[in-house]
Amino acid sequence: METLFIYIAKSSGLIALFFLAYYFLLRKETFFTANRWFLLAGLLTSVILPWIVFTTIVWVEPTPTDFDWSKIPIRPVQEESFEINWYLIAAIAYIIGIILFFAQFALDFYNLKRILKGKTAHQQADHKFIDLNENIAPFSYFNTIVYNSSMYSETEMESILEHEKIHSEQYHTIDVLITRFFCILFWFNPFIWLYKKAILQNLEFIADSEASKNISDKKAYQLTLLKITTHENYVALTNHFYQSLIKKRIVMLNKNQSNKRNSLKYALVIPALVAFVFFFQVKVIAQEKTNTKVESEVKSETTNLTSFKMERDLANVSKGKEIYIDGEKSSEGDLAKLNSNDIIKMDIIKNSNNPMMLVTTKNTNQHTKTVKIIDNDIYIDGVKSTKADMDKLDPKEIATMNVNKNNDKQEIRIITKKFPKIGDDNTTVKTTQTANDPTSKNDLIKKSIIIVNGTVLPANVSLDDINPAKIESMTVYNSTQAVLKYGNVGGNDVIEIVTKKIIPETNQNSTWKVGYGSNGSKTIIERTIDDKKIDYKKAVIIIDGKLSDYQTFEKINPNNIESIMQSDIKNASEENKKIAVDKYGKKALNGIIDVKYKNN
Fold first, then answer.
1. Reduced to 3 states, what is the DSSP secondary structure of residue 341?
2. φ/ψ bin of 533: left (φ > 0), alpha (ψ from -120 to 50), beta (otherwise)
3. Which residues form the domain of 576?
4. Does residue 69 belong to any structural domain of this protein?
5. Which of 501, 529, 546 is the last residue of a domain?
């Protein structure tokens, strides 16, 4: 409803703009025909231009999302008091006005038809002439001209008929009907009534100017105008010979033609229209610049617990391990020669027989093999694959790689970042270290709250107390993400662990959650009962960072989903509620469901 009122306000403003331009710039000029089209163009512009919106995108730096929750005041939620819906009241008043003025229009149209009904019309060329005995001022309606010949002399009738023929030939009735409809729609706008008066007056100027060219006695024509002013009975919706402001008509009839240079005044309205578009019809959309590096690090934190950054002495780390630099087998001496600034990452692959260190430098050829092995059984994301499939993998997409020796064969098990999974008996932890980040695995775990199957573990319980073989999935949430999902966590990160268990039967009122099959080969969607009882049909749905709806959510192919994070905002702290409502509106109180697609 607000959009409708904004549109009406813009249209009313444009009507006022064109009327003021006509009144102050064109009213005294003798460009009567040009003025007619200018005024009609103003009405047409007023209904079309407000619909035209130009969009411009402004790129802005990402807004930091770190908050000091302790400094945000807590305000109790107050019940909403009764408020008057002024939009509804205004809409009712507007509709009532339209009904009343349309009823008046219908009554005028009925009276016109009543006058014309059953009357004998004489056809002459393209015109129909009706001679009445009623005391009515002469008028024309489309190609029908009505008059009372008994009230005027032959000379006066000649002037009257020439005048009305101009109205008929130039279809001035259309102008009259258009202005009446605009008066119905914009009845509350005083400028539309002035606009109507200006259009009708200009039509009379046109008819007077053209008729006087076909009449030899111009003075007699003006005397006829004066005589007609005594007859005030005229019919609405018509072009009638009688019009008030007779003095202005006579003045304009005798006025010299305006200089053609004055026609440049029509162009003066263009800057005003440009300003209108610039201020009211340009929609600015702010979009944050994508910080690929930050997103990559956050995703790595939340989807893969097996990758940590450490700063250690290279010599100590490499002891007892086979060293591969950019896919080539190397020695500790080759490793010592490397500049630490050239090292992108180090992968430590642990197994009981043959631990390895894989070093990736800035000079890495992306198509270089990570490990050169000839006779192997290769499994990628649990699916048996070939050496060619392994060669096609981007090293940056590998989450873990396990090499197990069995007699003369080696078995390689690779888990990509698209299928993060911890808990396989043969799975080992992959760690990553850089020279610039001192954060260690142990430091991260010590600062984190551990939640297993929705239950917060005591502070004296660590990850070492959990059997890895029982783990189905593990996700790390940074402090900001943890607040949205679990409420106030004291600025700590959260490690969420789901153990292997029988998937419960579906429930019609349950919410949605992502799980991983025990074979690690594919992602599945589990519809499970959640303690938060978030109704996804009422919740805010975000799919790949864009607002969506539950209908689209229901149609998603589960195999395309990487993760779903649900946030129970209703039971969160007041400050967190405020942040969510400010961003997504009151609908956020029903919960937020954030869906991430897999990277294809």
1. helix
2. left
3. 502-600
4. no
5. 501
What's the rounded Cα separation, in Å, for the pair 424 and 236?
A: 90
Question: Tokens in use for 183?
Answer: 């008066």
Q: Are residues 368 and 261 in the same domain?
A: no
- Evaluate whether residue 80 is within a structural domain: no
pLDDT band at 123 (very low <50, low <70, confident <90, very high): very high
Q: Taking 70 as the threshold, does the pLDDT of residue 374 lie above it? A: no
How many Å apart are CA 327 and CA 356, to the nearest integer? 11
Q: How far apart are CA 99 and CA 189, in angstroms?
A: 16
Distance from C-alpha of 47 to C-alpha of 18, rounded to nearest angstrom: 13
Do 239 and 96 lie in one domain? The reply is: yes
pLDDT at 600: 56
What is the per-residue DSSP string for 526-538? Answer: EEE--TT---TTT
Q: How far apart are CA 113 and CA 120, in angstroms?
A: 14
Structural domain count, the chain: 4
Task: Output the pTM of the full model.
Answer: 0.49
Q: What distance lies between CA 258 and its chain's CA centroid? A: 50
User: Based on the domain organization, do 329 and 238 belong to the same domain?
Assistant: no
Report the alpha-carbon distance of residue 288 to residue 73 in Å, rounded.
28
Please answer whether residues 152 and 132 qualify as being in contact, where contact means their C-beta atoms are separated by less than 8 angstroms.
no
For tokens 């970042």, the residue is 417
Residues 385 and 462 in one domain: no
- Sorting pLDDT into bands at 50, 70 and 90, what band is 308? very low
Residue 292 lies in a domain: no
Q: Is there a contact between 369 and 392 (Cβ–Cβ < 8 Å)?
A: no
Neighbour-count burial of 78, counting CB atoms closer than 10 A to its CB (0-12 exposed, 13-18 middle, 19+ buried): exposed
Cα–Cα distance, 82 to 585 (Å, whole number): 20
Give mean pLDDT, residues 169-175.
Answer: 96
Residues 519-556 pLDDT 10s: 333 333 444 334 446 788 888 899 888 888 888 888 88
Residue 84 has pLDDT above 80, yes or no: yes
Instruction: Supply 106's token pair.
Output: 């219908």
One domain for residues 579 and 451: no
How many other C-beta atoms can be found within 10 angstroms of the C-beta atom of residue 498? 20
Alpha helices in 241-307 (DSSP H): 246-254, 269-280, 292-303
Contacts for 399 with CB less than 8 Å, ≥ 6 apart:
304, 306, 307, 415, 416, 417, 419, 420, 430
Confidence label for 456 from pLDDT (cuts 50, 70 and 90): confident
pLDDT computed for residue 104 by the predictor? 96
DSSP string, 211-255: HHHT-S-HHHHHHHHHHHTT-----TTSEES--S-HHHHHHHHHS
Among candidates 441, 534, 462, 455, which has minimal Cα distance to 496? Answer: 455
Could you give the CA distance from residue 221 to residue 155 in angstroms, rounded to a whole number?
Answer: 9
Q: CA-to-CA distance for 572 and 58, rounded, in angstroms?
A: 33
Q: Indicate whether 591 and 506 sit together in one domain.
A: yes
Could you tell me how many residues make up the chain?
Answer: 600
> What average pLDDT score do residues 236-243 get?
65
Shared domain check, 536 and 448: no
**Rounded-to-integer distance, Cα 370 and Cα 391, Å:** 8
Note whether 409 and 447 are same-domain residues: no
